[in-house]
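A favour, since you know our C-alpha cells better than I do. Go ahead and set the record down below.
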Amino acid sequence: MALRLLTPTEARVLGTLLEKARTVPDSYPLTLNALVAGCNQKTSREPLMEVTPGQAQEALDALKQLSLVFETSGGRVTRWEHNFQRVLGVPEQSAALLGLLVLRGPQTAGELRINAERWHRFADISSVEAFLDELQDRSPDKGGPLVVLLPRAPGAREPRWAHLLCGEPELPAQSAPAAQAAPRSALEDRIEALESEVAQLRSTVQNLLEQLQMSQPGHAN
C-alpha cells in the first residue's frame, strides 16, 4: 500500500506506538498522555521534540484515517495502538527497523542491531541488512521503497540507513558532493608544500651560515 508522506509529528507518534508495544507491553495500548510522554522522551530520540497533547491528537486523527492507528474500547480512557504491519505489509523485523529509524534517525546496520535489542533480537548484522535490503527494494505495487542507504559521510566507516516515511532525508553538510570540497583540499596540499619548501630553505641557509662561520642576521657574533 502506497501511503502519503507523514509529517514529523505523525511519524513520531507512530514510532512511539511501535516502540511501546514492544518495550512496555503491560502499558500498551497507550493513553494520549502516555503517548505524549513517549514522543517527548529525552533518550532514544533524534531529534528531540516537544509534542503537545493537541498536536498528538491531531496526528492520531490523521493516522487513523490512514488506518495506521485505531482506538481500543474498554476502560474510561481512550487508548491507542498501531496497525503498522498490516497496512504496510511488512514482517515484525522490518517494522522494528523502521520504528527505530523513525525515532532515532539514520543509523548503520550495526547500530540498528544494537538498538533493536529490546524490540527484536537479530542474529547478526547480515540479517539486519537483509531486511533493510527488502525494504529498499520494495516494488511500486507494494508502495515502493521504505528505506534508503545514504552516501557514506567523510570519515565514517559505514554508511547509514534512513526511513522514507516522511520523504527523502536531508543529507548533512559533510555528505555534500566531494567536488565541492576539492578546492579546499587542493589549497591545503599547496600550503603544506609551501611550508615544506620554507623549512628546506631555512635548513639550507642555516647550513651555509655554519659553513661560513657566520651568525644569522640580527644575532650577536
Observations:
- Residues 174-184 have pLDDT under 50 and may be disordered.
- The two ends are 89 Å apart (CA to CA).
- DSSP finds eight helices and five strands in the chain.
